[in-house]
Design a protein that fits this description.
- The chain is 0% helix and 47% strand.
- By secondary structure, it is an all-beta fold.
- The strands form two sheets. A six-stranded mixed β-sheet has the order 2-10-9-4-5-6, with no helix packed on it. The protein has a four-stranded antiparallel β-sheet with strand order 1-3-8-7, with no helix packed on it.
- The chain is globular, with a radius of gyration of 13 Å.
């Protein structure tokens, strides 16, 4: 059974940082491209970052480029998203997605709220 479990969300002040984690199981994580997608209330999901299976090729949406960093530890079947210089517009539920893009199996999500 494929499982993706996100963690690390919470409340952070503008300018602050959070690190999200996604623990993967039930599939060959090391052979899979992975993505982060976020969804704010009432809006469509936004594909914000992705990483190829080897960990070298990465994608960032313009909205997070220069502030967020995606990484992975294939030995521990874990995906990460380091979020710095956070803004109120970053408030959303963040999902770990299997694959390159917004569509694919995703976890239950973790809430991130940026507010003072």
């Amino acid at each position: 059974e494929v499982q993706l479990v996100e963690s690390g969300g919470g409340l952070v002040q503008p300018g602050g940082s959070l690190r999200l984690s996604c623990a993967a199981s039930g599939f060959s994580f090391g052979s899979s491209d992975m993505s982060w997608v976020r969804q704010a209330p009432g809006e469509d999901p936004d594909w914000i970052s992705a990483i190829r299976s080897g960990g070298v090729v990465k994608f960032y949406d313009n909205s997070v480029k220069g502030r967020f960093a995606i990484s992975r530890d294939n030995a521990k079947n874990t995906l990460f998203l380091q979020m710095n210089s956070m803004k109120p517009d970053d408030t959303a539920v963040y999902y770990c997605v299997r694959g390159w893009g917004r569509f694919g199996y995703r976890g239950q999500g973790t809430q991130v709220t940026v507010a003072s």
